[in-house]
Amino acid sequence: MYEIEMFKWIREKNGVYDLASSGVLKLEAPQAEAPPLEEVLIELYDIPRQNLAIVSGAQEGNFLAFLAVKPEYAVITVPEYEPIIKLPSSLGVRHVKVWDVWEAPIKPGGVLIFSNPNNPTGRYLEKRELAELADEARRKGAYLIIDIIFSDFVTDDLRGFPLENVAYSHSTDKFYTHDLRAGWVFGDEEIVRRVKYLKDLANPGPREAERKAAAALLSRRAEVKRRNLSIIKPNATALLTRFPNALYKPHMPIALIPTGCNDAKLAERLLAMGVKTVPGRLFQAPYSIRVGLGVEEPPRFREALEILAQGWCRA
Questions:
Q1: pLDDT for 271-300, tens place per residue?
Q2: Is Acyltransferase set as a keyword in this record (predicted)?
Q3: Pairwise CA distance, residues 78 & 99, whole Å
């Protein structure tokens, strides 16, 4: 139980081509000065200062928000990012799994936790849909914790998130991939206040160098997005040409490809051929493979696709 199998797979497996990573090719932080990280984020999301907490990463943000809410039970959608799936059980909180957020039994004292866009499917709820869910949670005395680490890939509309009874987590780890990492939580003022307190109890980071690097990258968001899409878009075109049945949200750095065969065995076979992917069962999406589109440059990505096609399941 006490192991994140996806991390074990990614850390221990090595391939010539990296189609396992869900981020983008590493960026260098600009050397120019930027406003303090808090100021950059307040402007980016158009939120009050008291609705923002700086943390060390999105996963820490999810963890602290969960502790802050102290739910009696949790609802998880699947497929989903493994650390989100395992968060409630690791803290001894009873939970149920559903296939769709609209199926979630939202009741007093509960929390619905999910990624948006979803990792690995890319499914994305617009803000009007988030507002509907948040309103239902508020009326029923429940909460939402939403990991939005992939949101910058699919939208530039970052203002107007519903805040009441909601906590959003994000970090520089995907869209702004860099050696230094910083994260943030924003949302309901009372949840954020508790997150800040819990953060101070556990870990006072991120450090000043991490804050400065994050602020510099966030201040150049449009430039970073152009760079990211210059890699992702041609790779996505190549992927969908070869695998038109892939589940893919435009501009996302990941896709989920149905396999029609045992995904773990397929991933091992592809690895032996030099291509590192992630078995879908690690997201509770068996018979599928997750592929990353943001790390390998287009020429190398096309080479990796040829190997995927050669090693793929046969009917």
A1: 999 999 999 999 999 999 999 999 999 999
A2: no
A3: 5
Give 65-84 as a DSSP string: HHHHH--SEEEEESS--HHH
Vertex 287, ends 282 and 290: CA angle to 5°?
55
Dump strand ranges (E) for 12-72: 17-18, 52-55
CB atoms within 10 A of CB 113: 27
**Cα–Cα distance between 241 and 297 in angstroms, integer?**
17
What CATH topology corresponds to 37-218? Aspartate Aminotransferase; domain 2 (3.40.640)
Q: Give the C-alpha separation, 148 to 295, whole Å.
A: 20
64 phi, psi to nearest 5 deg: -70, -40
| Residue-wise pLDDT tens digits, 129-171 | 999 999 999 999 999 999 999 999 999 999 999 999 999 999 9
Distance CA 250, CA 194 (A): 36
Q: Is pLDDT of 202 > 70?
A: yes
Domain boundaries, the chain: 5-25+221-311, 37-218
